[in-house]
Every structure is written in structure tokens, then in C-alpha cells.
Amino acid sequence: MQIDLNADLGESWEQWDSGGDRALLEVVTSANVCCGAYAGDVELMLATTEACVERGVVVGAQVGYPDREGFGRRPMDLPSDALVAVIREQIDQLAAVADAVGAHVAYVKPHGALYNTVVHDERQATDVVEAVAPYGLPLLGLPGSAVLRIAASEGLETVPEGFADRAYAPDGTLVPRSVPGAVLDSTEAAAAQAVRLSGTVRSICVHGDSPGAIDLARAVRAALEADGARLRGIGR
Questions:
Q1: What confidence tens digit (pLDDT) does each residue in 128-146 have?
Q2: Coil, strand, or helix at residue 67?
Q3: Do the domain assignments include residue 236?
Q4: pTM assigned to the model
Q5: CA distance 195 to 227
Q6: Angstrom distance (rounded) from CA 117 to CA 115
């Protein structure tokens, strides 16, 4: 069994300067690089992407609502043309940065509130697919989500994703972060969940801003490999 292990990176200089992002790049196989709409900036994109190249980590575009104050975790009802435009701006910006260091953008993943909104919101899901379609890039999302169904109908490659460090509701959606216990901080629980999910998804996510993120990511990778998984980045 082959599976990808991804993490959200390039979201803050504090995380970069602490060494947290660079440590995660020694563990994951794909990096969801923040494209500046909800956090980060061009310089941080450049540093993160260059580090991905050095470590052989696949680069993906993490796109979100233009909501720096709320870190992209507040739902927004942007008009379709505005949402399509802001997503394409983010992909284009990261593509230019990646090209400067000899890399390329290999996939797209929505972030935060946008990720959760396009699970059920048909209009915004359609907007996300419209934004990504000209690039022909694979799209990461929650299994069974509207955005993956629409993307597949438009001929885009879809990558169902599971979360090692997030709690799930009975319907398979993520428990909102405002609910106690929504983020798993036990390395054992996260590793066990990753193994359970690995048979139903193509990529497993660990969050760099979770408590003990590095130890958790290492535990998840070790558990997947012990279960017989071969870890490879998206598109490899």
C-alpha cells in the first residue's frame, strides 16, 4: 500500500524560525505550502519551497479565504468570480516561487473554513473546481465531499484525505475546532487513527501547529510504515 503524509507549512515565521517546519519536512512526503491569503508571505513561501526541494518533499498549494485576521478559519461567502480569482492568485504566486527554486506545484488543497465549506456547499465547491481546472492539478479533500465529486466529474484527479490529529463526527466530517477534543494531542491516538484511515484515503495530514506536532508526525509515520505502507509524495 502506498500513501502520502502531508502537513500544512509556511504559515508563520515563528514556526519557521523555531525549526518546527523544517523538522516536519524531515518526516512528511508532501507539504501544503500556505500561499499568503490567510497567512504567510512570499519570502516564507520561498524559504519553505526551497527546503522542500532540498529534502525531496512534494510541493502543494494550500489555498484559503483572504482572511488573515481569522487565519482562514472563518466561513466567508465570497461571490463566485472573487473566490475563483483569489484561489488562482494563490496558485500562481506559489507556482512562480516554486519555479524560481526548480520545483513545481503538484496539487491543490483548500485550507480551514474553505476546506470544510466545500464538503457540502455545492456552489463554492464548483468555484474551487473552476479555479483549479485550468491547471489540471490533483485536488485534496475530504472523502465524500462535494468538491471531490465535482472535481472527478470534470476530469480532475482527486486525492481523498484523512487527518491523523483531528476528531471525526459520525457523518465523517471533522469536528469543529471550537469543540473540546477536536484536535488529538496523543501521539498514540493519532498514530492509531492514521493506520485506521490508511485503507480508505490516499493521503494523511498532520498539522504543524498541533501540540507536540513533530513527535506526533514521527509517530504517525512510524505506525504507517510498521503497518506496511510505502510513503510517497503526491504524484510520485
A1: 999 999 999 999 999 999 9
A2: coil
A3: no
A4: 0.97
A5: 7
A6: 6
